Amino acid sequence: MVYAVVRAGGRQEKVEVGTVVVLDRQQAKVGETVELPAVLLVDGSTVTSDADKLAKVTVTAEVLGEERGPKIVIQKFKNKTGYKKRQGHRQDLTRVKVTGIK
Length: 102
What we know:
Elements: E1 2-8, E2 11-15, E3 20-24, E4 33-36, E5 38-43, E6 46-48, H1 51-54, E7 59-68, E8 72-78, E9 83-89, E10 92-101
Antiparallel strand pairs: 1-2, 1-5, 3-10, 4-7, 5-6, 7-10, 8-9
């Protein structure tokens, strides 16, 4: 069983070949291939975490589409002053499918 832990934005994701992952927005169009930097590689009983060896590891993924995350409501309120503010946010995301770990 081969899997890798990749750096995806500010997070780390555990991926295998065929895994579909939602990442922060990538500058790639649908159908293009992106490379994700590996932080850890597990190949059976061999665990690789050395930076020099991980520089040779490539995790490739195909972009499936763009989407937006759930709406987050930001509310600010200060008592007795009449100050209140409401704001919303939806994060831009990219859905990718891992195609290879080499």
